[in-house]
Design a protein that fits this description.
118 residues, mainly beta, Lipocalin, 5-stranded antiparallel β-sheet, globular, Calycin, Fatty_acid-bd, retinal binding, transport, vitamin a
Amino acid sequence: MVEKFVGTWKMISSENFDDYMKAIGVGFATRQVGNRTKPNLVVTVDDQGMVCMKTQSTFKTTEIKFKLNEPFEETTADDRKTRTVVTLENGKLVQKQSWDGKETNIEREVSDGKASGD
């Protein structure tokens, strides 16, 4: 159930993020900022099942709204225009982004009351 993701989550650590950003073509200056940023993730769900994920940092705040399993257009924090679908798979929130013939998956899970993502 997506409800277990509802709340405000603070990023504690991020591993291999610089390599990931390089692989998707993010420039050096933006990668430097991205590597230092530890955003909060705020997840809410409304009565109609619309999920809102807001990523807040001193650098930038982004927000996406979606229904599980329904594709939508997303503009990422690094300004990529993607076709995105979020699903619930094995207790993980899986965000699949496609753009320019490329694809990436972001997985988020809650374990022992703590969220993690990669």
